[in-house]
Every structure is written in C-alpha cells, then in structure tokens.
Design goal:
CATH class: Alpha Beta
Number of domains: 1
Strand order of the largest sheet: 3-1-2-4-5
Shape: elongated
Order of helices and strands: EEHEHEE
CATH architecture: 2-Layer Sandwich
Structural class: alpha+beta
Strand content: 25-35%
C-alpha cells in the first residue's frame, strides 16, 4: 500500500460557539490542511497520483475559507468551525473530487492544524 500526502494553508478567522474561554471571541489562524491518498497499485505514470494534482484539489476545497470569517460561510453558519468540523468538511469534499478525478485512489485522512503544535485528523472507516 502506498500513501502520498500534500498540504495547503489558508488564513481565516473564527469563533467557537458553545464554548467558554478565549476562543469564543473572534480570532484568526494560519490553518494548515494536509490530505493523504492511498492506493495499492501505481498508475501508468508509476504514481498513486501526482502530488501537484492532489495539492490542486485540496487548494480548490479550502479556497472559499481563505481570508474569511469561517462562521459566515457554509457549512459553518450552523456548525461551529472547530478544527474537527473543518477536517470532516474538507475530507468529504475532497473525497468527492477524488472519486471523480482519480479512480483507484482512496482518501486515507485529512488533518487540520490551527497552530504548529496542534492537529486534528479525520478519517472514515
């Protein structure tokens, strides 16, 4: 089994709903989002998929978040824009794009970091 990983980042503000503490107030982060794609065989180019293609799809998914207040955009108008919810949203959107563009590649996980020393990983069974 092979697994490749690519990362992108974006700048955005948010505040946490139903939370007691400093993060209930508006604040910003430079978010880092990583995604891993796995495959048991290599394609004609002898890759699971091109890093450039994975990074481009990931950038397309997070583009609406850049320089925004996450609470003001879907799907975070209702769901609190926690790292966990962002990771799940990115996973589901990226999984759909991969299914259409890269048959045979499987999205293994998505991680979201809001600081250099924190990270959330989302994967589905």
């Amino acid at each position: 089994m092979y697994e490749i990983c690519a990362a992108v980042s974006f700048h955005a503000a948010h505040y946490l709903r139903a939370y007691q503490g400093k993060c209930a107030r508006m604040h910003g982060h430079t978010w880092r989002v990583r995604a891993a794609v796995s495959g048991s065989s290599l394609g004609p180019s002898e890759m699971v998929m091109d890093f450039h293609d994975l990074k481009a799809l990931l950038a397309e998914v997070v583009a609406p978040f850049d320089h925004s207040c996450l609470n003001e955009i879907e799907p975070f108008r209702r769901a609190s824009p926690t790292s966990e919810n962002i990771a799940r949203h990115v996973y589901l959107a990226l999984e759909e794009k991969l299914r259409l563009s890269t048959p045979g590649a499987r999205l293994a996980w998505v991680s979201v970091s809001e600081s250099p020393d924190t990270e959330v990983v989302y994967r589905e069974g």
